[in-house]
Design a protein that fits this description.
314 residues, 12 helices, 36% helix, 14% strand
């Protein structure tokens, strides 16, 4: 029987990778060893829950091939792929002990670029479908884009074309190292308070697409409407856009897709509360969903305590 939630379950293909639906598990820190038994079980359960794509929590690029080997990562890719779910690794910049974007030397900046490329190569060897440089939420790559946080006077600071350079260099390096069939996502935050507006963010996104990304991941969103900050990117770009904000409400998620604010919906805390949210919505079992009440007790709360995240609703 047709359902008003059908738009959530329309397949989409990105390059050669087919997603069985539009529901994305976004990268969320879990305080778990992602290649340990607990981490494998966590991501396996999310895959069994019916999501169309899993983006693994951010891992520092310097760890790939050293503290995390391709053979270990292959186990993670395997347990997710067994459920017919593609898997993407979010990559986090190395700080080299420096406090901000302005403190890195040119050599350290260029070393970061190479480390992103190497990390992506390791992920490809492990069977991952793609990677996502973490350029959001005020972290290192986002600082480079911010005129209020980037005080550099070299070719990585000042004018917009310079503040975009690191993100573009990383995407170019990853594409060159992994070839045409590997997916590249990029996560970005529109941050007016950081000195740049939506116009600069959209220009950056367009350049990222020209350089080789396959998906634009916009996070976070404001409280106005589902995926409201993703909508300008959806209008401007030729690649799929991930939107967030209130998507654990199935009606809001469908609204965002139907009104063309985004192509994919990211559900964070809602999937911590109930990894099987996708299956339950698809099967019409909405009354069985364990709802996130946004108490933040055992998700953010456990993060602050340094213990694995959970949900107070369990």
């Amino acid at each position: 029987m047709p359902s008003r939630y059908d738009p959530l379950f329309e397949p989409i293909s990105i390059r050669h990778v087919r997603l069985k639906n539009r529901i994305v598990v976004p990268p969320m820190r879990t305080n778990r060893d992602i290649v340990g038994d607990d981490g494998l079980a966590w991501y396996q359960n999310l895959a069994k829950g019916g999501a169309g794509l899993i983006i693994v929590e951010a891992v520092g690029v310097e760890r790939f091939g050293s503290s995390i080997a391709a053979e270990e990562l292959a186990r993670l890719a395997e347990v997710v792929h067994e459920q017919d779910v593609p898997i993407v690794m979010q990559l986090f910049a190395a700080s080299f002990g420096c406090g901000s974007a302005s403190d890195l030397s040119i050599d350290e900046v260029q070393s970061n670029v190479r480390l992103f490329g190497h990390a992506a190569t390791v992920c490809r060897q492990a069977g991952f479908d793609g990677v996502e440089p973490h350029g959001a939420h005020g972290f290192m790559l986002n600082q480079f884009f911010s005129p209020s946080e980037n005080r550099r006077t070299d070719r990585y600071g000042g004018a917009l074309q310079n503040r975009m350079r690191l993100g573009l260099d990383i995407v170019r390096e990853v594409r060159q190292r992994t070839g045409p069939d590997f997916l590249i996502f990029y996560r970005h935050t529109p941050r007016q308070e950081a000195g740049y507006g939506m116009d600069e963010s959209v220009v950056f996104a367009q350049r990222l697409v020209e350089t080789g990304i396959d998906v634009m991941d916009i996070s976070p969103a404001s409280e106005k409407a589902p995926a409201d900050l993703a909508a300008p990117f959806k209008r401007a770009l030729s690649v799929p856009v991930i939107g967030v904000n209130g998507m654990d409400d199935p009606d809001c998620a469908v609204e965002a897709l139907v009104q063309a604010r985004c192509d994919l919906v990211g559900i964070g805390r809602g999937l911590i509360a109930d990894a099987h949210w996708p299956n339950k919505v698809r099967e019409g079992r909405l009354e069985e969903i364990v709802r996130c009440v946004k108490c933040n007790e055992k998700c953010y709360g456990n993060l602050d305590k340094g213990i694995p995240i959970a949900c107070a609703q369990w």
